[in-house]
């Protein structure tokens, strides 16, 4: 099962999908390909789900790499660290958000 938090109805709905996958013996691997926010949410959900240790993720995407102040970095084993802190535990690079959305947020 590879849901994307930005496509299935947000965090609560993806959590329900993870529970259904677990109840039915299906592996849950979130599909964090859209944005840095979606990837952060998918990482949080994957870390809380007992039947996964992975998140499918796209490298080289400006909507993932540019939107955060601290860029995502794969460790020596090819894994991403789950951000530590409240909420999604990421900080947005507002210059990049404005660049990619054409909106001014400050």
Unreliable stretches covering 5 or more consecutive residues? none
Major sheet description: 2 strands, parallel
Order of helices and strands: HEHEHH
Structural class: mainly alpha
Coarse morphology: globular
Query: Radius of gyration in whole Å, from Cα?
Result: 14 Å
Number of domains: 1
Q: Hey, roughly how much beta strand do the residues contain?
A: under 5%
Name a few traits of the molecule.
mainly alpha, 4 helices, single chain, two-stranded parallel ribbon, 106 residues
What can you see in these coordinates?
- This protein has one domain.
- The longest helix is centred in the N-terminal third of the chain and has 14 residues.
- It has 4 helices and 2 strands, in the order αβαβαα.
- The radius of gyration is 14 Å and the shape is globular.
- It has a two-stranded parallel sheet.
- The mean pLDDT is 90.
- With 106 residues, it is mainly alpha-helical.
- The protein is 37% helix and 4% strand.
